[in-house]
């Protein structure tokens, strides 16, 4: 059995002793290893962990879905609890990230807050996933998603690099977990598009995607795009859409009306696969 614990997310749950922040961190316990998928923004996730019986000392490796601060910023704080053997990221993770606003007059730094030299100094092995990488018999990482749904656009305010070019989020990776005869897709923000990600996973593994878990970055999307995305996900035959973080309040409300298929996630929630 595989279990997933939400160490931190934007919203709370029944567990009122836990604190939330804008960010995401998931503790994934597999039969053969323990992973941390994203680290939240500040390290708050690791203060929540003992209250959830999430043993940080068991973490073998860390996967950071992309280098925005709300997913990567907590990584240095994790090292005061445990030094994982390996950090997995996508290609281009070290490209500086910014948000542009006020008609291009202002840029806000959105990056991880640490660099490749820091990871080397900390003695953590860094592995880059550029396509498909098997972590264990029950888990894979994937990156390099095919962009086939043209309506899954990235907001123009996201830029990267010294020249502040449009960010295509080539660094984004997802985690894929075995679930019965299919797989579950775990995402950080799905900046390349959740449908693009799911279809790429299906094409590469030849297995049905039975669950989607995590962020979908639909918080800035129109109602039309939200409805179309959820309809297409349901049309793929999924039995569970456990969405959170940047998916937005409109998605949460829709999930709550789906009955057995939709379950919005909050800090302290758990899933089993």
Keywords:
29% strand; alpha/beta; seven-stranded mixed β-sheet
In short:
The chain has 273 residues and is α/β, with parallel strands linked by helices. Helices cover 19% and strands 29% of the residues.
The strand order across the widest sheet is: 8-5-4-3-2-1-17
How far apart the termini lie comes to 6 Å
List the helices and strands in order: EEEHEHHEEEHEEEEEEEHEHEHE
Category from helices, strands and their pairing? alpha/beta
Question: What is the overall shape?
Answer: globular
Tally of extended strands? 17
Stretches with pLDDT under 50, minimum 5 residues: none
In this structure, how is the largest beta sheet organized? 7 strands, mixed
Strand content: 25-35%
Helix coverage percent of residues?
Answer: 10-25%
Radius of gyration: 17 Å
| Tally of separate helices | 7
The overall pLDDT average reads 96
Description of the molecule:
The structure is a single chain. With 273 residues, the chain is an alpha/beta fold. The chain is built from 7 helices and 17 strands. The chain has helices spanning 44-48, 69-72, 75-78, 116-122, 194-205, 223-235, 249-256, and strands spanning 3-8, 25-29, 34-37, 61-63, 86-90, 97-101, 106-109, 125-129, 132-136, 139-142, 158-160, 165-166, 174-179, 182-187, 209-215, 240-244, 270-272. It has a 7-stranded mixed beta sheet. The protein has a 6-stranded mixed beta sheet with strand order 9-10-13-14-15-16. A 4-stranded antiparallel beta sheet has the order 7-6-11-12, with no helix packed on it. Strand 15 (209-215), helix 6 (223-235) and strand 16 form a beta-alpha-beta unit. The protein is globular and about 45 Å long. It starts with a strand and ends with a strand. 46% of the residues are buried. The model has no long low-confidence stretch (mean pLDDT 96).
């Amino acid at each position: 059995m595989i279990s997933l614990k939400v160490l931190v997310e934007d919203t709370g749950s029944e567990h009122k002793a836990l604190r939330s922040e804008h960010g995401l961190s998931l503790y994934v316990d597999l039969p053969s290893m323990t992973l941390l998928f994203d680290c939240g923004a500040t390290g708050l996730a690791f203060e929540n962990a003992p209250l959830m019986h999430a043993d940080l000392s068991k973490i073998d490796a860390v996967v950071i879905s992309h280098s925005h601060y709300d997913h990567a910023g907590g990584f240095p704080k994790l090292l005061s609890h445990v030094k994982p053997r390996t950090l997995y990221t996508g290609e281009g993770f070290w490209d500086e990230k910014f948000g542009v606003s006020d008609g291009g007059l202002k840029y806000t730094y959105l990056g991880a807050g640490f660099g490749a030299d820091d990871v080397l100094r900390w003695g953590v092995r860094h592995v880059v996933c550029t396509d498909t990488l098997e972590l264990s018999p029950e888990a894979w990482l994937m990156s390099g998603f095919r962009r086939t749904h043209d309506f899954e656009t990235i907001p123009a305010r996201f830029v990267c690099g010294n020249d502040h070019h449009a960010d295509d989020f080539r660094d984004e990776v997802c985690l894929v977990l075995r679930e019965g005869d299919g797989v579950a897709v775990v995402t950080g923000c799905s900046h390349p598009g959740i449908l693009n990600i799911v279809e790429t996973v299906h094409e590469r593994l030849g297995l049905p995607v039975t669950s989607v878990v995590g962020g979908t970055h639909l918080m800035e999307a129109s109602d039309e795009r939200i409805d179309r995305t959820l309809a297409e996900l349901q049309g793929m035959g999924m039995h569970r859409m456990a969405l959170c973080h940047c998916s937005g309040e409109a998605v949460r409300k829709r999930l709550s009306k789906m009955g057995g298929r939709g379950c919005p996630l909050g800090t302290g929630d758990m899933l089993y696969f």
